[in-house]
Amino acid sequence: MSLNLSGPTRPVGLVVAVGEEAQAILTSLLPRTRGHLGRFPFWRGPMARREVAMVQCGPGLDRAREAARLLVERQNPRILLSVGMCGGLVPGQQTGDVLVASKILTGGEPLVVDPRVLAVVQRVAVEFHELGRIPEKGTTIKGYRCAEAVLVSRDQVLTTAARKKAEAAASGAEAVDMESSAVAGVAEEAGIPWCAVRVISDTVHEDLPLDFNRFMDSSGQPQRVKIFVKGLLNPRLMARLMTMEKTTRDIGRVLVRFLDLLLPEMVRES
Q: Pick from 69, 51, 10, 17: which is nearest to 188 by CA?
């Protein structure tokens, strides 16, 4: 079953938060045009033979909600995807695992994904797993795994294992991000399908090397110079930051590979 929505010129809408997520996708979004939706960077072009409109909102629910509404109003997407990284909240998950939200917890009624979306994901997951059997040199991620998960969105990075375990115990969620509940809520308001595709960047047992909530600028982007200076003063921290940067690049490649499989199956042109 595919989401063969009407209007062949209507794009797939993607909402990403940070530059690393956007840059990974831009490697496959060719040729493309660039502009702005309000205050947010915006790109449009083909990806996996499907027209895509992507906006980079910065971390956080308010920014994601604003950017998603602009994307819906000005680009009229046929489906809205929240894509990027997430933190794992349950044991057994691995860095690089792709999680697709079956529902998103909101504090009230959860947002439940269209069953047709999950049907497509289940098909794509088999092919994705097989693709991961092919050895890839120089990556920190071994093999490709995809699973459905219960997601929750928070306005801060959960930087410690203790905070992630507390979130899991309190909410029952299996992964956490900072945007998907806002994006899905906008899609529900607009009456279009949505999907949250997230790749685990840190597992429930990991502490991040820094409290990144203290190193965000006014647009929500990481203050890279301040982070770099902090690392210069602490060689052990610098080593962890460099490892994290490489892992982030590897995660970006995993995300793109999954989307390259997902988009043609999710939206089949007539």
A: 69
